[in-house]
Amino acid sequence: xxxxxxxxxxxxxxxxxxxxxxxxxxxxxxxxxxxxxxxxxxxxxxxxxxxxxxxxx
Length: 57
Hints:
Oligomer: single chain
Structural class: mainly beta
C-alpha cells in the first residue's frame, strides 16, 4: 500500500483499487483507522485523540 504522507509518527496510506467507500488508512504505532475521504468519518478502527485531530486537520 503506497505511503501518501508521514508526520509526527503518523503514516497515511491509500490503495486506489481497494474496496468502497473511498478511504485512506492512518497508522500510529499500534493503532490504525480507516477514514472516509468524503466525510472524514472513521469507518473502522481508531487513533488516540491527538493523532486523530492531526490526521483530520
